[in-house]
Amino acid sequence: MSKTIKLTMAQAAIKYLMAQKTEINGEIKPLFTGVWAIFGHGNVAGIGEALYHVQDELPTYRAHNEQGMAHSAIAYAKTLNRQQMMACTASAGPGSTNMVTAAAVAHVNRLPVLFLPGDTFATRMPDPVLQQVENFHDHTLTSNDCFKPVSRFFDRITRPEQLLTSLPQAMRVLTDPVECGPVTLAMPQDVQTMAYDYPEHFFAEKIHRLRRQAPDDTELEQALALIKSAKKPLLIAGGGVHYSSALAELNNLATSLSIPVGETQAGKGALPWDHPQNMGSIGVTGAASTNTLAEESDLIIAVGTRLGDFASGSRAMINPDAKLLCLNVASFDTVKHYGQSLVGDAKLTLKLLADKLTDITPNNEWIAHANGLRNEWLSMVETATTDRGTQLPSDGEVVGAVNRAAGDNDIVVCAAGGLPGELQKLWQTRNDRGYHMEYGYSCMGYEIAGGLGTKMAKPESEVFVMVGDGSYLMLNSEIATSVMLGYKIIVVVLDNRGYGCIHRLQQFCGGPGFNNLLDDCLTVEGGAPKTDFAAHAAALGAQSEQVGNIAELEQALVRAKSAQCSYVISIDTDALADTKDGGAWWDVAVPEVSQREQVRSARAIYDSFKAKQQKNL
Fold it and tell me: How many separate domains does the chain show?
């Protein structure tokens, strides 16, 4: 008979997490490096008590906002290529539902986070308790059921012994390259405190290793035939290249065959920006060089990307006559856009392809054409990021200044608004993890909290958070957390007084300026106040300053890099200026009927692109 140990459900869950290890480059490390927690009546007595006794081995981090702390956990896992992760716990009710948006971010981006939300009493004895959502037709539902559509695995632990079967499944999902995503284990507050005699072997050390799936022989042969027959191939590098640690294999294949490479938001950095085969970003926020090649190519090799609408130009950009080869560890992603499936680990499969394609003779005309487009694009990037000395600089000019200040091992973090487009087009990185963009869910408010998580993962790097005034106002509290924990981030706030990106999109669709820029919103007679972001950041404990132009920004960045704590720099920018070069069409529906001539004209343009899109369906 196996030995047992009597623990509460919460104590057992934490003990199990601490027994999980991961192998990274031959070194065994903890799989869970910390727990983010905001305590309340739904978790303070159960999970809180369990975490207290192990805080020297498993740190507990206290945040200021539940969504923010979950964003930090997501950014941490992304920066470390999903090899280490964190858990997040919050109280029953609003504390837990605050994390639902972050769970959606993790789900869309296929990133591992363990959510441990407090839940209402499983016994129902004191019902209805404070913050309990009573469902009138199904008493088994609680507010934590909101996590179900945004979790890759969900369970509600209504008996302490249920951990014996639930936790191994949770670990399977969190560490599986195909299933990877957020896991939610809802924990009723009374069950957290219930005890059970757990078998000691349940807490034995478990070492997780990245599973590498070799491709099917038939699919590999079909892929080889496609590549051998192609005259004008283009490779698209997605986030899966990073998560598979396939950087060297991608470099080898692209270099040996002289295949031009375009990068998605998640794939950016897969090749250094100055690599001869790196054509720049692709899609709606892409480089003219890469997008032109996509329109002319006869074979698209998509590696580790789900080919979302921004990468594919809403299916209207890629040559409809081109073949599509989709290499992905997840078969779910390989069948999109009617592609030829090549299911397998990117690191293994790219090497197999390179080994079997040594007899290919590159198309010199295609190579020369690609090089010419690349040089033209790099010239445009230099122009767009150079200080023009205007009173209100463009986002591109600010990107240029921050990029010049960043070292080769530093990281830029962003998420939403117009900045992701400017950064994908213009930011140049040699570091494979030097570009951190949350653009699967494009969640406003991710930026500052994500910057904190990134810094925790890479404390040796300077982390530059670029954020618009709109996102800053949505979620800025983790500036105080970064100061409290001693993880310095540099935040550059681009203040265009409103949602400039959506204002520009509104006008592109024929609409008037309405409810996006503060000048176009319903306000008091004197207008909306001018937010003093520097003063606000100082109130949260950061060093800060307001600058008036790019030259002052560059000087402030020098001071920020030498500072010992988080540093916030605010600069006013032009809400109307953006880098129009390069980007492909994006399918944003325009009304068929309108009183405005501008809308009717925009609809005509929309219909023309829909016709191109139809050819790819």
Answer: 4
